Amino acid sequence: MTSQKEIIVVPNAAEMARRAAGIFKSKAIERCRTTGLFTVALSGGSTPVAMHRNLASEPFRKSIPWKRTHIFWVDERCVPYTDSASNYGATRKDFLSSVPIPRDNVHPMPGNMASKENGSKEMAVAYEREISRFFRLNSGKLPVFDLIFLGIGTDGHTASLFPEDGALDEQEKFIVQVKGGNPDLYRLTMTFPILNRASCIVFLVSGKRKAPMVKSLLENTGTTLPAGRVEPINGRLVWLLDREAGSLLSSRKK
Ligand code: 6PG
Fold first, then answer.
1. 43 lines ligand 1 (CB under 6 A)
2. With b meaning 16 or more CB within 10 Å and e meaning fewer, what string describes 96-121?
């Protein structure tokens, strides 16, 4: 069953960040109430920064059940956490250091342990093991994240799944090492099998430069671009766009 796409277009990037923080908050409250735990995976890049900063401010900070929230990453660059390219490093600065989340609830990808020169397949295996342990998975089973935030590049990539990369066809491993992107680095990334099992996936896209790719992904059926291959098997798929990013969509799509 292919998931229904919900397309939400809001006036500007600030409103998109507020709506995204609202989704984070309501999902966290709902999952903690029903299962006692909330698992979320975050992407890097510039788009989610405003949402992350919202999470560290009211009304979100005090209403999120941080003690039962577990944060993972969709992808990470193989650089030290202090490097400006580190997704974990940026998230720690933007909100993790300002919210009362227990240290053990934060699960950064070990990109800092992989070297810039040759990355490290071992770190991809290590993170896969950490996720399997956390979700108490038997071998071969895949985790179901409550919520995953994704972005897109103007080339149609998402996570660190880049067009034409062999990682797009990975069906076994749920964390792999790739090389590419901007900056062009070794990276660790989730693959489609784990992404598409999430209960809810939210694409956050902002800005005019992404409008052509948003239109292509949402209006051209059969796209083989990475972001177009994200289709939760039993989950909710939300495209949360600001007006500029959604500006080329035909009116019926909005
Ligand atoms: C990464 C991200 C990546 C990002 C897109 C959009 O680590 O690079 O996970 O997939 O979401 O490249 O990046 P911007 O938000 O900076 O446009």
1. yes
2. beebebeeebbbbbbbbebeeeebbe
Q: Is 128 in the pocket of ligand 1 (CB under 6 A)?
A: no
Asked if residue 21 lies in contact with residue 64, where contact means CB atoms within 8 angstroms, the answer is: no
pLDDT in tens, 57-81: 999 999 999 999 999 999 999 999 9
Q: Choose one of 75, 161, 182 to mutate for the ligand 1 pocket test, by most ligand atoms within 8 angstroms of C-beta.
A: 75
The CA 17 to ligand 1 mean position distance, Å, reads: 15
Q: How far is CA 223 from CA 148, 163, 176, 216, in A?
A: 21, 11, 23, 8
Residues composing the chain: 254
231, amino acid identity = E
pLDDT per position as a tens digit, 212-224 = 999 999 999 888 9
Give SS3 for 177. strand
Task: Report the predicted TM-score, pTM, of the whole model to 2 decimal places.
Answer: 0.96
